[in-house]
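Progress report, Aim 2. The chain analyzed during this reporting quarter is listed below.
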Amino acid sequence: MKSSENQRKLYLLAVLLLIVAVAVCLAWRLWTPEETVPEENALPQESASPLPTLAAQALEPTATPGPTVDTVVYYQDNSGYLVPVMRSIPETDGIAKATLSLMVQSPYNDMEAARLGLRTVLPENVSMDLDVMSDGVARIDLSQEVLNLPDAAAESVMVNAVVQTLTEFPTIETVRFLVGGQEMETLTHGTSVSGDFHRSVLNLESSSIPVEDAQMVTLYFPGDTGSLIVPVTRMVAGNADVDTAVLELLKGPSATSPLDNALPTGCGLIGVTVEDGVATVNFTEEFIRLAEESDGGRMALRALVLTCTQFDGIEEVRVAVEGEPYDPGADTLAVPTFVNVAAEVEDQFLQAQASAIFE
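Predicted structure tokens for the chain:
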């Protein structure tokens, strides 16, 4: 009797499982669209609303990515610093113009910049024409939207970012501005757009050193997001050489700057020697505290390498601590081709944001 009841239960269970399986199959059939076979010789439909701006045309993702090229874009961080970032974009004949289009405010561009912890610098809906002449002069004609920037600071950032971005290209030496097809002396808030602009120093710190007595070095500091390296130009009273640059790097960013120290507090410089293209930087023992950083000191070491290799003749950087060779880890002292690389910055920025949420 008990065996018969068990068989009955097993039968009911089997029927129930069969019903469930049939129901799942029916639901899958109802909710999955059937594949359609395109008509022979059918033409692809054109978009009902073509993208209105160069920025949108250049940046709209494509289903079948083709060849790409690396280009350097200048964005602004939340503290007002201009930050160079290498991005890979679709190959095009007008690569310089396409690069500038990445810097125009738009929902897509702003989202891409925000993923790096940065902001775009050209006003929304601005259009541009770019003519690169054989003598190395790039003539950029911006539409009237650039006259609506909110203040002189925004104007200055835009002008500097355009000049820095265009002069990254080897065929461009100077930049000439037009607005609405006309040459202008100044923008709305007094920023000069007259004459030819050469590549200039980036993120110049204020200084009490008289200009006639000063020289300049570029220092690289980790940004406040922990994912970017920010170049800063500092005026110094001594020689603009690698020894001076490392000493200034040890001092850290200016007192009013939100940038992070590149090297540990209390770390001292014993000396720098350069031989056969290799700069060996000899630090005091406090340097080893760099390994305690959340990233093992990778961003700080990148800043050190960039600071040293700005000088002609230095192609490699090594570290010593109290005169003994120090190995900070694989590839940490590799000379980067670019200050910042978008894909790396994005990964680090997202990781930093996630860590902040769960702390």
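The helical segments are 2-31, 54-59, 95-101, 107-114, 152-166, 242-251, 298-309, 342-358. The CA atoms of residues 225 and 274 lie 33 Å apart. These observations will guide the mutagenesis work planned for the next reporting period.
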